[in-house]
Every structure is written in structure tokens, then in C-alpha cells.
Design brief:
Layout (H helix, E strand, L loop, with lengths): L1 E8 L14 H10 L9 H12 L2 H4 L3 E7 L3 E5 L9 H14 L1 E2 L6 E5 L2 H6 L4 E11 L5 H4 L4 E6 L17 E4 L7 H16 L1
Parallel strand pairs: 1-2, 1-7, 6-7, 6-8
Antiparallel strand pairs: 2-3, 3-5, 4-5
This protein binds S-adenosylmethionine.
The site of S-adenosylmethionine (SAM) has 17 residues, from strand 6, strand 7 and helix 7.
């Protein structure tokens, strides 16, 4: 099984209007005025990441579990059968509902939100823990599958710039890998990790 975690994701409610998510493409002027870090308010990263992960062959074969950990130490558990809404505004509406109700749909939940740190989430999963970051040990993409094991936990940052907010994240993992000399978006790294595990597995 591959466990895929989007860590320290910039997903939060807009503090100036709690009826919507913070979205830097819309709220940039109030964010700037209040000196809020530029990296915040990026639900689009989680959206792209979830579309790539949930529609992968690996997920269709039942070998993928996906989690979104947020900057405020919340963890979203995503049921494998979840079909991610393609429309961005409707996706944000769904996540807002999740922040309010903790489960969506409420009766037969596909998405469940719990207050939990990244460390607590990692500790409840079984497998080799791999952190993806540009600062890691450089590995050729054609060899990434050789690093995979039957059970792996792959951790990718859900933020646009800067570094992981979770302190001591390097000490929570077994390996720290870089797959390219430049910066990649989270969903590209997710796609490469999934493809490498597929090569290892099939
Ligand atoms: C847009 S980056 C975050 C920005 C960060 N300054 C960086 O350079 O990694 C999003 C995430 O994708 C992963 N990532 C980006 N570039 C990578 C690379 N070359 N190798 C491995 N992982 C990478 C990391 O997990 C990172 O946190």
C-alpha cells in the first residue's frame, strides 16, 4: 500500500470571512495589508494534488490511501472511492463544509477531518517513510521505483514556497529524496511517486 500525504498544506478558513476559504488569488490585498505570509491561502494546490492522486491507476487498483495535513494540524482522510469535484469553486465549498461539519457527506462520509499533527498521522501508518524535498538526496527518476517498498508513506509539501512548517520533519522519516534539480509543484511530485510505486508493484 502507498500512503500519500500532502503535508503542511495551505488550506484554511479566511479569518476575515469565515464563510469562505482563504484564497491568495482573491484575498491578496487584505493578506498583504495584514502582512500575512505569501505562501498562505492555496486551496488550488490541494485541489490539483487530489485530482492527480484520486484518479491514478494506483487508486483504481485499491493500492493508494491519501491524506491532506494542514498548516493548522488538521488531517483530512479521503476515502479511496472519492471523486474529486473538478470545479474549483465547488471544491472550495466542499472543503469549507468539511471544516464546519468535520465530515462530508455527513451521513456516509467520504472526507473526514480530525485535529492531528503530521507526526501523529505518520505514527498511525505502517511503511517506509519518504520525505520529498529539493533538499534531499538526489535520485534519478528512472530509479525511484527501486527505493519503494511494499508499504510506503510518501510525504509532499502542500505549499507554494518556503519549507515545511512541521518542526523536525526530517527526524520522522527513513529517507529524504530530491527527484529534480529545480522546484516542482506538489502534484507533479505526487504523480512521479505514484508512477514509481506502480513500476515497483506491477
Ligand atoms: C512547490 S514545492 C514547495 C516549495 C519549496 N521551496 C521547495 O522547493 O520544495 C512543493 C513540494 O513539492 C516537493 N518538491 C518540489 N520540488 C521537489 C524536488 N525537486 N524533489 C523532490 N520534491 C520536490 C516538496 O515536497 C515540496 O514541499
Amino acid at each position: 500500500m502507498m500512503h500519500l500525504i500532502l503535508a503542511d498544506s495551505e488550506l484554511e478558513i479566511n479569518p476575515w470571512n469565515r464563510k469562505e476559504l482563504l484564497d491568495s488569488s482573491i484575498h491578496h490585498s487584505i493578506m498583504e495589508k495584514n502582512r500575512m505570509a505569501r505562501r498562505r491561502g492555496r486551496p488550488d494546490i490541494t485541489h490539483f494534488f487530489l485530482i492527480v492522486a484520486m484518479e491514478s491507476l494506483l487508486n483504481k487498483y485499491g493500492l493508494l490511501r491519501v491524506y491532506v495535513h494542514t498548516r493548522n494540524d488538521e488531517v483530512i482522510y479521503i476515502a479511496p472511492e472519492t471523486r474529486i469535484i473538478k470545479n474549483y469553486n465547488r471544491f472550495k465549498g466542499l472543503i469549507l463544509q468539511l471544516f464546519e461539519k468535520k465530515k462530508v457527506p455527513f451521513d456516509n462520509p467520504l472526507l473526514v477531518l480530525e485535529n492531528k499533527s503530521l507526526k501523529e498521522l505518520i505514527d498511525e501508518l505502517k511503511g517506509k517513510k519518504i520525505l520529498f524535498t529539493r533538499k534531499g538526496r538526489r535520485v534519478e527518476i528512472k530509479k525511484l521505483h527501486e527505493i519503494m517498498e511494499e508499504d510506503v508513506i510518501c510525504i509532499i509539501g502542500g505549499f507554494p514556497s518556503g519549507y515545511f512548517l512541521t518542526k523536525g520533519i526530517e527526524n520522522m522519516v527513513d529517507d529524504i529524496l530530491s527527484i529534480y534539480d529545480g522546484m516542482l509543484p506538489a502534484w507533479t511530485v505526487a504523480m512521479e511517486a505514484i508512477a514509481a510505486y506502480e513500476r515497483f508493484k506491477f
